[in-house]
Amino acid sequence: MSADPCDRVRALSAPVCFLLLAVALGIGLAIRMVDRGIGYGSSVLFGATCGVLGAWLVGVLYQSLRCVFWRFTRGYPFVAGDVVEVTRGPRRGSLGSVVSVGQAPWDLEVALQGEEGTQWFSAGQVRASKKGKYGGE
């Protein structure tokens, strides 16, 4: 992956948001339970569990909506052999061929035209190319 500081921030943003949402939901629920006379231990345990589950559900919903958006705007899902165009980052405008799809279906290993080796991209960084195989070569 790239050593760009912005990429590092993006990589940490999802776990940090998940943690903050889980803590906020958990604390809010625990406070409401304590106000109703339920003990602190039970309130904190139930609040933490519901906070994690709630944050997980929000994450699943967000990723599902993102994949639907990519389907209409980027040609997602991609399979090995698809020709894609990079739309974000320093290689913007480059064409390449999908070599493999990562463990997460939105992570793509792409062999870029005119470059040795492969690069990993998110489905949000590429779109299906309308130019055919490497611009008609």
Strand order of the largest sheet: 4-3-2-1-5
Low-confidence stretches: none
Fraction of residues in H or I helices: 40-55%
Structural class: alpha+beta
Number of helices in the DSSP assignment: 2
Mean pLDDT: 83
Given the C-alpha coordinates, what overall shape results? elongated
* Number of E strands: 5
Describe the largest sheet: 5 strands, antiparallel
Strand coverage percent: 15-25%
List the secondary-structure elements in sequence, H or E.
HHEEEEE
For the record, the count of structural domains works out to 2
- Output the radius of gyration: 21 Å
Distance between the termini: 28 Å
Tags for this model:
137 residues, 47% helix, 5 strands, elongated, SH3 type barrels, 5-stranded antiparallel β-sheet, alpha+beta
Descriptive notes:
This protein is α+β, with helices and mostly antiparallel strands. It has two domains: 69 residues; 53 residues, SH3 type barrels. It is built from two helices and five strands. It has a five-stranded antiparallel β-sheet with strand order 4-3-2-1-5, with no helix packed on it. Helix 1 crosses helix 2. The longest helix has 34 residues. The chain is elongated, with a radius of gyration of 21 Å. The protein starts with a helix and ends in a 9-residue tail after the last strand.
